[in-house]
Amino acid sequence: MSKRVVAVGGVHIGAGNPVTIQSMCSVPFSRFDELAAQALRLQEEGCDILRVSVPDRASADRFAELKSILKIPLVADIHYDAELAISSIRAGANKIRINPGNMPESDIRRIAQEAKSRGVPIRVGVNGGSLEKDLLKKYGSPCAQALAESADRNVKRLEECGFEDIVVSIKTSNVPIMVSAYRLFESKYNPKGYPLHLGVTEAGTLRTGMIKSAAGIGALLLDGIGDTIRVSLAADPAEEVAVAKSLLRALGLREGGLEVISCPTCGRTTVNSIELADRIEKEFADVQTPIRIAVMGCPVNGIGEAAESDFGVTGANGRYVLFKKGKIIKDISPDKIFDVIRAEIDNVIHNRKTKSE
Ligand code: SF4
Prior knowledge:
TIM Barrel, Sulfite Reductase Hemoprotein, domain 1, eight-stranded parallel sheet, five-stranded mixed sheet
């Protein structure tokens, strides 16, 4: 983890603060009502920091309006245009993301001055698709060394302007290169301990993107590298937040919410436990209390394998049983199974609440 803390609005990144989840709106400012609705939905889903593209003057002019309806910090994503960066900072952006590699020195200096005077951090966002030409020529491809060197170079450009309120990201769609680039940057080029924003860019569709992000972001977080993440998906951004939450939970970096443990089923399964597990996960996605439910395909191994859960269900001969701590508690007919699960979840929530009072 980084040594420094960067404050993005009221959210702190780095130096042991909880790893935060970021996402990005996919609707342009020209469809403002739709954009606002999406931003509010992402906030509701648990996005900690939200980013929005500011590609033109009309977008910058409505930035403050969008920010005013949100409780979470709003980040302006800027390419090429210093004026848009400066306008967004003045409109209340809690952070801006730029790729200093595609801006002249004088523009970087002006952005850094404005950001510093208002206490707004800057993310240096290096991307494999827009690497500087000289680095591409030197290395022949956007390899890990080239990406880490680009990040170092662009961090130094901000430091030369007296600006150190920096978060760094080094993204590419190639997972092994992305992981190597972050590791290299962290070990060789980050003596000041700037916080790192992790992500696999252009990761792909829901399934592919989820796997690539889990592999790349997960490998780094398990190494203790990374302070904030974005799971980038060609899907509804709400999926990005849901996947990021699941990833942090799987890595033991976030508590809370429902965890459904389920077996893959096999020839011993006589109930539709896959559909049940899926339904429970969707129906109770908003539960905040940490609850682990085992949904197993048969009692042969299921009850023992799921002994560590708050409770579990499994089935045999077309009926279900409820079990707790490895023991069968109740026999349930299939038409009542969901009601019983709902009651058990309410029960766990009530007991946790009573205990903490
Ligand atoms: S718990 Fe039962 S149904 Fe599930 S994989 Fe194991 S043996 Fe098969």
